[in-house]
Amino acid sequence: MEKSIEISLLYDFYGELLSEKKREAASLYFNEDLSLSEIAAHMGITRQGVSDLIRRSESELYEFENKLGLYSRFEAINASAAKIKEYALEIAENSETPFKELALKITDEAEKIEKLEA
Length: 118
Hints:
This protein has helices spanning 3-14, 20-31, 36-43, 47-68, 70-93, 99-117. It is 82% helix and 0% strand.
């Protein structure tokens, strides 16, 4: 995944945990796609100051993810939900397939979701 997209996703999960200045700089840079110079003019600080804020923001966002893992859990839940949907569609489309085997697959995926939410 492209780094700027990854940071934007992490920002969605953890942006509120950043200081106000870091949050503003990161949002303008990653979400609004402004240049360092544009952000510096907007915030009334130097380009180097903006660069430092963004670098520290990135570092903190990755640290939050390493400690809390909310984004990873979100992705895992979505992947499991997609498999559940796939299996359910397979049951609906293939009435002659053994329902027991597919029901077990659905149960396994549901158990994975339960463990993630615990």
